[in-house]
Every structure is written in structure tokens, then in C-alpha cells.
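Write out the 3D structure for:
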Amino acid sequence: MVAKARVQKRLYYKIGEACKAVGIQPYVLRYWETEFPALTPSKSRSGQRVYSEKELEIIRRIKELLYDEGYTIAGAKKKLEGEMAAGGLGEGRDEDEAAGEATAAAAPAPPPPARPAPARREPPPPAAASALDTDASERIETLVSGIEEALREARDILALLGPKPSP
């Protein structure tokens, strides 16, 4: 039986330790720092990034939004900002919340809401061009006729050049 490597709970984690705890590569985490304003690690005296438990929670949520729920970076950023504004995710808890959780623990918890499947965008079928507005439809027809004309000209030029001479 192989024991899993455990990351001990501490106040701060270096970037390698944080990445191991969350299951991502350091370059991914550094990129996320540039995209998500909520993710701003402090630096140690030696200049290394150090992450708190709160930031690890934010990183886990970003990973969940991007990898599991299928959000884009922009969509995950909006969703995360909304969750942070609503007071969830990594925010400090006050005593009222802790007391509310103690009483809620006695009652059975409702099942978690089902997550909607990530929306997949597929290109419209070719026949859908007629369903587009007339301006877009005209532009598509102009593009297709231009391509056909360019192909005809290319074939005419090839015919003028004739067959390739043998070496």
C-alpha cells in the first residue's frame, strides 16, 4: 500500500508546496496570479511567493471553475469575484456565522444543488447561414464568390504555365 504525500497545514506555503497541495504546475499558478486579482501572494524576505490557507482555497476554487466546471478565464474571474463579494470563499468568518453553523450541524443538511453541465459551443451547421441576419448572409455570399473567383484565376495561371518540365 502506497501512502499519499500529505502537505501539513501551516500558516504559509512556498509556491512548490502550494502547487503540490492543489495539484497544478507552478507556471499555471504564476499565470493565474496575473489573471485573478483575488490571488495576490505575499513575498518572503528572500523574495519567494508564499501562500496562505485563504489563498490555497482561492486556488482550489479557480482550478474547480476552470477544469471541472468548464469556465473560461474571463468567466471564472467573474464568477470568483461574485463569490468573493457575496462573502464566501476565503473571507474571514465572524462568530455569528460559526454559531449558525453549530446549530445547522444538528439538522440534516440539504443535498448540494446539481451543477449544470458546462455549455459547449459548437459552430452552426452550414445550412444555418440563411438563419443569419441579411447583412451577415450577404457578407458570407461575397466571401464565397471571392474564393471561387480566386480559385478560377489560380487554375487559369496553372494552365498557362503548363506541365512541369522533367529534369
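The longest strand covers residues 49-51.
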